[in-house]
Write a structure and sequence with these properties.
Low-confidence stretches: none
Shape: globular
Helix content: 40-55%
Strand content: 15-25%
Largest sheet: 5 strands, mixed
Number of helices: 17
Mean pLDDT: 90
Strand order of the largest sheet: 1-2-5-3-4
Order of helices and strands: HHEEEEHEHHHEEEHHHHHHHHHEEHHE
Radius of gyration: 23 Å
Structural class: alpha+beta
């Protein structure tokens, strides 16, 4: 994907056949027709347009996007749809009415903003409409950059989400991206530039209380059907389509739900946000030890491990050495300078950074609070640097496509995915027994590589499986995982729950 493509507008299509694969079309047509009919029932008219953004599965590059390292995700067919009709302001008030097709779980919401007012979001309360408000806020802020007096139009919205919430497939990013796209479209932006949508969505999702890194939004918007997406964040956001080679038997990706909810917005202080803070503090201490001044960057807290890498090797005058050599050098530094295997206390970190504990907490733990007594900086940095190395190797394999595709190529890719899972389990500590079990079952049934995908601590796993082993792996999960947890789950029930999905890379955002 060239730079030019990133600056292309989000596609506008009139046929959903341009969005979904041939196999997905029948159920998606039924879903779209149901969405339009329901909108008409609710609002007495047809929607003016439908915005959509998909979920994603991360193939490799786990928990390193917020440290600004390259990742390799792909969009999936499951997406979030917003059917929209524009509402003119009412006596100076701009009214937004949100309804969800899953009305039992997500109650209808109506809220008002003044014509030139700000969009307030209470991130301490988990509300489904916060994700729409996040997209609304980002879109309004973007338009006010060119027109400070801009006032948004009201909207009637019906939401239909097919990305499982808490499943590790980025339902929140899909919702925020689709919402921002809908707001821009409703306010006369007929051509929404992909890069702008991604950049505003990255910042917008942070307003609901999570230090999101950017991979999820990039995959949701930039993806092209049939390709993986290489996403880099430093020195700037860049997306590149990476085609999958043809193998015999063909390679497929299977996604299996653990049915362990992994809502990072609820558990963030002890899990997701804590890892962001730990990685940031690891960068700060390494920089202080090396006498390097970090430059402000696009990471959630302004300084990142990737930023430290760049500054450190620039200072040494060896910025042109290979990424692999640099990362291996940094791993040695971690062993030397972050040697507290049991972690670092606030007092120890504050001393290393020549600041008080209150100042430390104010700078790094106020915007997104965390709960811990010890920060495991060594382990988190080790995972980030080794995972960055795995991404480089995985991408190189895809791009070079060795001649022995059918004998060693897939096992090599799979081995890298297995190494990622081991690191997520033992070093980054973001797996859980259920995810480990799904991976173990899959490998024994014929998967080349199996790992968690998404934030972890529950959610989904992703598996590189030759097509002729798909049914064997699926049945192994049904027998040894799903039915052991709940004997009432027949194959038919599991299919209805989309417990297992065989996925090909899908399209990004569209209207």
């Amino acid at each position: 994907m060239a730079q030019r493509t990133m600056n292309d507008p989000v596609p506008v299509v009139r046929d959903i056949g341009d969005i979904y694969s041939h196999d997905d079309l029948p159920p998606q047509k039924k879903r779209f027709n149901g969405l339009l009919d329901r909108f008409h029932q609710l609002y007495g008219k047809m929607p003016q347009f439908v915005s959509r953004s998909p979920g994603r599965v991360n193939i490799i590059g786990e928990h390193i996007d917020y440290s600004l390292y390259e990742v390799l995700p792909m969009a999936i067919a499951a997406d979030v749809l917003l059917a929209v009709s524009v509402m003119p302001p009412d006596h100076g008030n701009v009214i937004f009415t949100l309804t969800n097709t899953n009305s039992e779980k997500y109650k209808s919401v109506e809220f008002h903003v003044t014509a030139r007012g700000n969009i307030e979001i209470d991130s301490s309360i988990l509300q489904w409409d916060n994700y729409f408000k996040a997209g609304l806020r980002g879109a309004v802020e973007l338009m006010r950059k060119t027109n400070p007096d801009f006032s948004p139009t009201g909207m009637q919205v019906l939401v239909d989400g097919a990305v499982p919430a808490g499943g590790g497939l980025s339902s929140s990013a899909a919702f925020v991206c689709a919402s921002a796209l809908a707001v821009l479209r409703a306010n006369g932006q007929d051509q929404v530039v992909k890069r702008q949508l991604v950049e505003l969505a990255i910042v917008s999702e942070r307003s609901v209380g999570v230090n999101s890194g950017g991979m999820d939004q990039a995959a949701s918007v930039f993806s092209i059907r049939g390709d993986a997406l290489s996403v880099t964040f430093s020195p700037e956001l860049l997306a590149e389509a990476i085609p999958f080679p043809k193998t015999d038997p063909p390679m497929t990706f299977m996604i299996a739900q653990s049915f362990v909810a992994a809502d990072k917005h609820l558990t963030a202080p002890e899990q997701y946000n804590l890892r962001v803070v730990e990685c940031t503090l690891a960068a700060e201490i390494l920089a202080a030890t090396a006498g390097v001044k970090l430059k402000e960057d696009a990471s959630p807290l302004g300084h990142s491990l990737r930023g430290f890498q760049i500054s450190y090797f620039d200072k040494k005058g060896s910025g042109d050495t290979s990424q692999e050599d640099q990362l291996n050098n940094l791993l040695s530094m971690v062993e030397t300078h972050l040697d507290a295997a049991i972690g670092h206390t606030r007092d120890e970190i504050a001393t290393a950074l020549s600041m008080s504990v209150p100042d430390l907490e104010k700078q790094y733990m106020t915007k997104f609070p965390v709960r811990t007594e010890r920060f495991l900086l060594r382990q988190r940095a080790q995972h980030v640097f080794t995972e960055a190395l795995r991404v480089i190797t995985f991408k190189r394999l895809l791009q070079t496509q060795p001649s022995d595709l059918d004998t060693s190529f897939l096992p090599q890719l799979g081995s890298l995915m297995n190494e990622t899972q081991a690191s997520c389990r033992d070093v980054y500590e973001c797996s859980c027994p259920e995810l480990d079990q799904l991976c173990d079952i899959a490998r024994k049934a014929g998967s080349y590589g199996s790992r968690l995908t998404g934030a972890g601590w529950g959610g989904c796993t992703v598996h590189l499986v030759p097509r002729d082993k798909v049914d064997v792996v699926r049945e192994a999960w049904n027998e040894k995982y799903y039915r052991r947890r709940d004997p009432s789950k027949t194959n038919e029930k599991l299919a209805k729950l989309a417990a297992v999905v065989v996925s090909e890379p899908g399209h990004g955002s569209m209207v």
